[in-house]
Amino acid sequence: MTTTMSHVPTDKPAFSVxxxxxxxxxxxxxxxxxxxxxxxxxxxRESWLVGAFFAEVxxxxxxxxxxxxxxxxxxxxxVGIWATLGLVALYVASRTMELAFxxxxxxxxxxxxxxxxxxxxxxxxxxxxxxxxxxxxxxDLVCLLAELGLVVxxxxxxxAKARRHTTTAxxxxxxxxxxxxxxxxxx
Length: 187
Fold this sequence. Notes:
single chain, 5 helices, mainly alpha
């Protein structure tokens, strides 16, 4: 006597690379959004404008995480990639150069545990009173890693032609930024 097992067909395979990528993208966008939520109070103490910016970034990243749970079009992926790269560029610029549009810091403006750095004072945090250069902290790096992971995964979700164009544009943009920095035009 033979027993046959009936197989119920499903619309989606048990494992899908796209679903896995989307899950990682949702996690990365959620982590980045939550880190931004956590630092809103600190940034509101500096300036309501900076605090509002962080609130908007947090909301946008959490909305992106929600949108990525569903199938999204190429336009949404591209907006997610370029907006995130813009945030990463702003982060790097705010840690490496004076940005006149940022408010100057008092010595006690940042109350987070910062990472030890060379020539730091106390816990290793460089102290630049009345500087526009932001110090680097643990929440910063958690968020930065989440955002970089998000970019990688979103690029992986793009169709081949859009992926090719996007990575080429990213390479050219990075090379242009490096050339501007090395030439001294962007200091």
